[in-house]
Amino acid sequence: MKLSITDDKLMLNLEWYEQLWAFNLNKTLEIPLKNIEEVTTAEPESNWQEIRAPGTFVPGIIKAGTYYTKIGREFWYVRQEKNYLTLKLKDEYYKKIIITIDESEFWANQIDNYLYSRNIKRE
């Protein structure tokens, strides 16, 4: 998975196998930066009350796809138990996007810095 910031949007580009595991036909997820309410690298909360539809879950190996939780629809692509990047969103198809990526701290800082430098207000 590759992340980039283009035209005030965070772009998450999925590899073909990531699309397959996540049952997601979209190669790119585009999130307007103004719709990001919170960015964190803390371990996300996960429980057995989630409904996976569609997606893949193999304990300790992969959690990928769309999950329905108390807050709404979430997108997960987690393949390790570290380097989390969680985006809490507003006015988007997903309420949260949770991924693992080696540069999670870097991207959390990039997103916050970009929002601050562009004076994009989060409500």
What integer is the average pLDDT?
A: 89
Distance between the termini: 28 Å
Radius of gyration: 14 Å
Beta-strand segment tally: 9
Number of helices: 2
Strand order of the largest sheet: 4-8-9-7-6-5
Helix-and-strand structural type? alpha+beta
Q: Any low-confidence stretches, pLDDT <50, length ≥5?
A: none
Oligomer: single chain
Helical residue percent band: 10-25%
Describe the structure.
The chain contains two helices and nine strands, in the order E-E-H-E-E-E-E-E-E-E-H. It is an alpha+beta fold and 123 residues long. Strand 6 and strand 7 form a beta hairpin. The mean pLDDT is 89.
For this entry, give a set of tags.
123 residues; alpha+beta; six-stranded mixed beta sheet; 17% helix; globular
